[in-house]
Amino acid sequence: MKPNYYVAHPWHGIELGPKAPDEIDVFIELTPQDPVKYEIDKASGFIRVDRPQKYSNRSPTLYGFIPRTYSGEASGKHCSDVVGRPNIEGDGDPIDICVLSASPINHGNTILSVIPIGGLRMIDKGEADDKIIAVLKGDEVFGLMKEIGDVPEAMIKKLQHYFLTYKLDPNSPTSGTVEITEVYGKEEALRVIQFGIEDYIKKFVTV
C-alpha cells in the first residue's frame, strides 16, 4: 500500500460516515480541560489558539465541528423561517457540535463517532450559529440517551450559560450579542445538519 504523506484537512477531508446524519464522525477542537479556546485554522487545517478563555468560562463538554458541513444560505434561511425574522444568514463556518461523554478525552484534534440528540438554536450578531448536541457512540452513560429530554437539565443550562457568556467582556457593552432562542430535539438537529450538508455541497462541491 502506498503511504499517505499528507494529513487530510479536518473540515474537508474527514468523511461524515455512511449513516449520516443519524450517526456522524466529528472533529473535536476543545475539551473542558482546556484553559484556552482552540479552533481549526480554515486555510491550513491545523489547530490554532483562538484566544485564552477569559475569566472563569470553560466549555462544559467536548466541542468541535461537523466535517463537510457549512452554515450558509439554506442554514440561515431555515433559522429565519423558524424564528420568524428576516435576513438571518449562516455564519460561514462548519456546524458546531457539543459532545457528551463520560469517558475522559483530554485533548482535542480528535475524531469521534457520535449520535446527535438535539441542539441549541443560537444567533450571533444576526447569524445562525447552531450548536448541535450529541453523545459519544458507545458511551456507557451518555450513550443511552436518545433525545435531548434525556439530558439532565443542569447540563443544558451549563451549555446555555457558556455560549451566552463566552464572548462577554465587562469593558465592552456591545460584546453580548449572542442569543439562544430554542433548545430543540433530535429531529430538528438532524434537519439542521442536513441543511449544513446541502450548504457545504453548494459552496465547495457544486461547480
Automatic annotation (TrEMBL):
Q: Which GO terms describe its molecular function?
A: inorganic diphosphate phosphatase activity; magnesium ion binding
Q: Which cofactor does it need?
A: Mg(2+)
Documented EC number(s): 3.6.1.1
Q: What class of enzyme is it?
A: hydrolase
Q: Does the keyword Magnesium apply?
A: yes
Q: Which GO terms describe its cellular component?
A: cytoplasm
InterPro entries membership: Pyrophosphatase, Pyrophosphatase_sf
Pfam families with a match to the protein in the record = Pyrophosphatase
Q: Which GO terms describe its biological process?
A: phosphate-containing compound metabolic process
Q: Which UniProt keywords apply?
A: Hydrolase, Magnesium, Metal-binding
Any keyword Cell inner membrane? Answer: no
Q: What is this protein called?
A: inorganic diphosphatase
Organism annotation: Leptospira ryugenii
